[in-house]
Specification:
368 residues; alpha+beta; 6-stranded mixed beta sheet; 3-stranded antiparallel beta sheet; 9 helices; 33% helix
């Protein structure tokens, strides 16, 4: 496993060397974890001229959610409470003889950037930009294996909830139960705050659970995800509570399902990201619901729950094989509720069977 992370750091080091930087300082947590298998709060990684050092503001906790650093990265715990690992990294690079340090300017605050210049005024700071994020875009087999397990955990948690009595329980209670079940099945925690929305709240993107109780005839929309070894998946489903769905519920559900299926089927290497959005959005536009769809229809997932690529009208670039994305259209009608259907998939060529569906909980409109 250490060889995998060493290869990632070598790729980044070679890129820095090609642009004239003798060292690089990584501060964005997901990027630190991608390169070291570990991301303690506030830690920074120095890819130095001589060795690679993970600088931490406190001793490692051993918490699985932080990960465990690979053996070929030296861990340095700063002696002073409140010492900044990023500033310490710049100082260490200067002392090691580096004359140029590549930093993630998009992650540094102005205050931190000034502190770097003050602690090592002889260092020329260069912008690393999103070089690590670009490396993270296409996932290797180990990363996809973690995403598969995360999806299995989310499917298990959701499946168990659907077998329980739901009427009379609050959105907040159901969300907490789902998050407990994620951990019970082996997740490090939820991938993001779990959303449970009932009745007029159903289908609302990013809905925060309230004390509203589930009632007969409600739409119930759920969006959850598991964090497994740092990798995060996402699943969203909509159901009807306790009775046969009404005509308007069936019509709206079938429409969103058709849009989601169109988006899933459009996923292939070489397809423009905005084309997947256009295909998904067209189904809802044709039925007069296009204005109720959000600014995107999906996004990449991995060490962060929302990363590149973005599936939106203004998105640039094309899909690659082995890139995991969500397809998650939804329609919310104020005062009535709505439908959201969300899957995590891995882009695969047609020769390999097309997009690989990771979240497999049924998308049939169930009456629970």
């Amino acid at each position: 496993m250490s060889e995998l992370y060493a290869a990632r750091r070598t790729r980044l080091r070679d890129r820095c060397a090609a642009t004239g930087s003798a060292a690089a300082l990584i501060s964005r947590p997901a990027n630190v974890r991608y390169l070291t298998a570990c991301a303690p709060p506030g830690a920074a990684l120095l890819l130095g001229p001589s060795d690679d050092v993970l600088l931490c503001g406190r001793p490692l906790s051993g918490d699985p959610s932080e990960g465990r650093p690979v053996d070929d990265v030296r861990v340095s715990v700063l002696p002073g409470r409140g010492d900044d690992p990023v500033v310490a990294g710049a100082d260490l690079a200067a002392k090691a003889g580096a004359d140029t340090l590549a930093v993630e300017e998009h992650h540094l605050t102005v205050t931190r950037h000034r502190a770097l210049s003050q602690v090592a005024p002889q260092l020329r700071l260069a912008d690393l930009a999103c070089a690590v994020e670009a490396q993270r875009l296409v996932k290797d087999d180990d990363e996809i294996a973690c995403l598969r397990i995360a999806a299995e955990i989310a499917d298990q948690a959701l499946g168990e909830l659907l077998e329980s009595i739901l009427v009379g329980r609050t959105e907040r209670h159901l969300a907490l139960e789902l998050e407990r079940r994620l951990v019970d099945h082996g997740a490090d925690g939820p991938a993001f705050p779990t959303s449970v929305a009932t009745g007029p709240n159903a289908g609302r993107p990013g809905h925060l659970p309230t004390d509203r109780r589930v009632e007969e005839g409600d739409f119930l929309s759920v969006c959850l995800g598991a964090n497994y070894r740092g990798y995060r998946c996402e699943i969203g489903r909509t159901f009807v509570i306790g009775t046969t769905p009404s005509d308007w519920q069936i019509e709206l559900y079938d429409l969103v399902f058709a849009a989601q299926r169109a988006g899933r089927e459009a996923l292939a290497p070489g397809v423009e990201c905005r084309e997947v959005d256009r295909i998904t959005r067209h189904v809802l536009d044709a039925a007069g619901y296009g204005e109720r769809l959000g600014p995107w229809t999906g996004h990449g997932v991995g060490l962060e729950i929302d990363e590149d690529p973005q599936l939106s009208p203004a998105a640039m670039g094309k899909l690659d094989a082995c890139v995991p994305v969500t397809v998650e259209p939804g329609v919310h009608i104020p005062g009535r509720g709505g439908v959201r259907i969300d899957d995590t998939l891995v882009v695969r060529p047609e020769a390999d069977g097309g997009p690989e569906l990771l979240t497999i909980t049924t998308k049939e409109l169930l009456a629970l």
